[in-house]
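Minutes, project check-in
Item: structure for the 111-residue chain
Input as provided by the requester:
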Amino acid sequence: KIDSVISGHWYTDDDESGIADVDDLLMQIPEGTTAFGMLQLYAQENNVEVVYEDRDAGKYVTSINGVAENSRAGWAYEIDDAMTLDEPDKHVVKEGQEIIWEYDEWHDIND
């Protein structure tokens, strides 16, 4: 097993579940676990619902904790505070990495 950190900002104004955000939670995960796998492990241990779609490129998270994507916002994850375009089931978490899940608004470059 390796040590890694998960953070999640899934408590939003639209969320009535009462499940709080998690910041800097140290998790021991099996070596070879992906960012998506780490989210699934956290969700199973803490009764947090994760909804996703299987797409050609990989797993795409559509809802966490009852907060679903819409036309202007959705779920994204970062690795050590850096944005990534990798699908979460493609990124293998390394020892000490922090995986951060956030519900973000999409910004149109024409706005």
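Outcome recorded: The CA atoms of residues 50 and 64 lie 5 Å apart.
No further action items on this chain.
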